[in-house]
Amino acid sequence: MVCDSCRERDAVVHLTQVVDGTVTQVHLCEKCAADKGVETTVAAPKTPLTSLLQTVQQQMAVGQSDQARCSFCQATYKDFRASGRLGCARCYATFETQLRDLLQRVHGATRHTGRLYGPPAPDQLQRASTVLELREQLRRAIELEQFEQAARLRDQLKAVAE
Question: Alpha helix (H) ranges present in the chain?
Answer without folding.
Answer: 30-35, 48-61, 77-83, 91-94, 96-107, 122-143, 147-161
